[in-house]
Amino acid sequence: MIIVLTIIIIILLCFLIHYQYNLYNTSSGNSTSRSSFGFIIPRCVKKEEHNSAWHTCYNTIRKYYTEPIIFIDDNSDKNIIKDIPMINTIVIESQFKGSAEMLPYYYYHLLKPFEKAVIMQDSMSFLKKFDFENYPLEDVIFLWDFTRNLNHHIDQEKFMLNLLSKPELIQLYESKNWKGSLGGSSFITYKFIDMLQIKYNFLRWVNILNKDKKYRYSFERAFAVMC
Asked: Whole-model pTM?
């Protein structure tokens, strides 16, 4: 009975998210389907200084781009968060508390708001314009990458990769011939993320990242290896 109720709740939440998204598009005249790309950003405000970070993130995007922005709010403190006037932007309340870096990929796949997405953290900002619209993107590029280092969580990373049931991913991971994706940030096509989901069912990680902060750090590496 509990399992059935849980499934019903999840279905209702998905329906409400789609309704909120479609209502925004039809009422605002800012349909994201008209854009070749857009921005998807997880947002979590727990301290006053976090407001400054996501405000800067939004403002620097708007300095260079008019494309749609989707913020995925990850359980921000409603008594602290400070809203600002925003254009062509929607905020979605996540039902996965604490899943952070995973949320943009989950909701991008769920909503398919545009063919290509710039996924970044709310603490990141642009210093100059990059021509995302005309970039010949085939699958994915990392906005910021890093070389493999010793300060990571091997057990958590292997656990996440083992969940995908693809031994070749563990082999690649152990070969050290890969670079991590800082903050899980990327420029990615919907076609590619859909392929990853069909092949690996990796979106199940959304229920893991909120269990321990170590898994959030591990996502930067496990996701990169999978790509």
From this structure: 0.85
